[in-house]
Write a structure and sequence with these properties.
three-stranded antiparallel β-sheet; two-stranded parallel ribbon; mainly alpha; 338 residues
Length: 338
């Protein structure tokens, strides 16, 4: 019900602002001519279910009505018939609380697999926004300070650890919640973020007039040994030097030290095959990240940053020329070509 709660909470905030500033009903109506409807004003159908206020007291603000079985059957049939529509669209069309829509969808199991993936994706995208302080509703300890978060270990906690903390922060039973999210995604959370989020979800989430305008840019070394997200709105002239000095250099040092140890361990006769395999992987990762670091150095020398006056699209095109994006713009199905 969290998506419905967010929409209801937005409406409650509107009401509080209107009351605090004594905005007349006539002015409110004019405001909503340019804004989405306030879904708090739509009633919940009490004979669908009771509203559980134990977790969120603001649910008390939702008006309730009781409908006849005939009216309720009509509402149910409309929700099922139009199951591909969003909660907001159905709520606005049927003039019913999104909480009611969510309950009916759950009772009738009318969420399609595609819709389930979308809902899970929105939740994880929201968590990434929290990590980058794009949103600010969760614990400040979940935030990264420099607009960069990497996969794996580093000077700051990695993305996987931070996402797990976000889940723990928002769910009483985080273990089953993780299982549920991964079941809806049909991937592990880590795999989805690493291999699917940027290209297959986020680029469409921030699409405008055929152009992709993602705000969380996934940068990756040529063979994927290093991958991270950078937050567009935090990019400045220090971002790439920080990426190099605080993330790439320490990782290269780790790999060089490990390689030196492995060279010693495999220098004798009949070296262990597992150690040889590990040595080969470490060497490949090291070469890959060094190549990526060289590209970042080139970008630093060229003074690459972002120009907010140009907008996201023109800025990401400039970065894409260096082929540092996990998925280049042509593969994001836009009209762009290098």
């Amino acid at each position: 019900m969290r998506q419905a709660d967010i929409q209801i909470l937005h409406g409650l905030i509107d009401e509080l602002v209107f009351a605090d500033f004594r905005i007349s009903e006539e002015t409110q109506n004019r405001i909503y001519e340019d804004l989405p409807e306030n879904l708090l004003r739509y009633p919940h159908i009490s004979n669908v279910s009771n509203i559980d206020v134990s977790e969120h007291g603001f649910r008390n603000e939702v008006p309730t009505v009781e409908m006849s079985e005939e009216e309720l059957d009509h509402i149910r049939s409309k929700v099922i018939e139009r199951s591909s529509q969003s909660l907001r669209d159905l709520s606005e069309d049927l003039k019913i609380s999104p909480h009611t829509i969510a309950v009916i969808k759950s009772q009738e199991d009318s969420y399609t697999d595609e819709r389930r993936r979308e809902v899970a994706g929105r939740l994880l995208s929201y968590y990434l926004g929290e990590i980058f302080s794009h949103w600010d509703m969760l614990n400040s300890n979940l935030k990264v300070p420099d607009g960069i978060v990497q996969f794996g270990s580093g000077p700051q906690e990695g993305l996987n650890e931070l996402i797990q903390k976000c889940i723990t922060e928002t769910f009483d039973n985080p273990g089953p919640a993780v299982d549920r999210i991964e079941d809806m995604l049909e991937y592990s959370i880590s795999n989805w973020f690493r291999n699917h989020f940027f290209q297959n979800y986020h680029a469409d989430e921030y699409k405008r007039r055929g152009q992709r305008n993602p705000i969380y840019w996934q940068l990756e070394s040529p063979d994927g040994s290093f991958s991270c997200f950078v937050y567009y709105h935090e990019i400045d002239e220090n971002t790439l030097p920080k990426l190099r000095g605080q993330y790439l250099d320490p990782r290269i040092d780790e790999l060089e030290n490990e390689l030196e140890t492995l060279n010693t361990q495999t220098s004798g006769d009949n070296p262990d095959k597992e150690l040889l395999n590990r040595k080969e992987k470490v060497q490949n990762d090291l070469n890959d990240i060094r190549e990526f670091r060289d590209t970042v150095d080139e970008m630093i020398d060229d003074g690459v940053t972002v120009d907010v006056e140009k907008g996201i699209w023109d800025n990401i095109k400039e970065w894409d020329q260096y082929e540092v994006l996990e998925t280049g713009l042509p593969k994001l199905k836009s009209s762009y070509s290098r």
